[in-house]
Design goal:
Elements (H helix, E strand, L loop, with lengths): L1 E4 L8 E4 L7 E7 L7 E7 L3 H12 L7 E6 L11 H5 L21
Antiparallel strand pairs: 1-2, 3-4, 3-5
C-alpha cells in the first residue's frame, strides 16, 4: 500500500510504503478545543516529526475534532511503573490527607 500525505506549509509530500516501513513509533495527543488538555489519541509510525504530525492530522482529526496536535516519539516518554503505583503515589506526609482527624458532632457542616 502506498499513499501520499498532503504537505503542510509548502513542504514536499511524503510517500509511505508498507505497514510501518521500519519507522519509529509516535504517540499522538489531540486537544479538542482551546482551554482543554491534550488527550492521548493513539499511536502511529512515521519517519520524522513533521510526517508524524501530518499523519496524525489525517488519522485522528479527520472530522475537525481537534485544534492542536502533539506528537512525541514513544522512545522519549518516561513513565512510572504501574505495578509500583502504591509506593510511587503514597504520600510520605500524612497530614496532607486529613483522614485521621475526628470531627466533633457539633461541627455538622464538614
Amino acid at each position: 500500500m502506498s499513499y501520499d500525505v498532503p504537505p503542510i506549509d509548502g513542504e514536499a509530500p511524503v510517500e509511505f510504503t508498507g505497514a510501518a516501513g521500519g519507522y519509529p513509533l509516535w504517540e499522538v495527543f489531540v486537544r479538542a478545543q482551546r482551554g482543554l488538555n491534550h488527550v492521548h489519541a493513539g499511536s502511529l509510525h512515521a519517519p520524522d516529526a513533521a510526517s508524524a504530525t501530518r499523519s496524525a492530522r489525517d488519522v485522528y482529526t479527520r472530522r475537525g475534532e481537534g485544534v492542536s496536535i502533539w506528537v512525541v516519539r514513544s522512545s522519549e516518554i518516561h513513565a512510572s511503573d504501574p505495578d509500583a503505583a502504591d509506593a510511587w503515589f503514597d504520600s510520605p506526609k500524612p497530614y496532607r490527607h486529613p483522614t485521621f482527624y475526628e470531627i466533633p458532632d457539633e461541627v455538622g457542616h464538614m
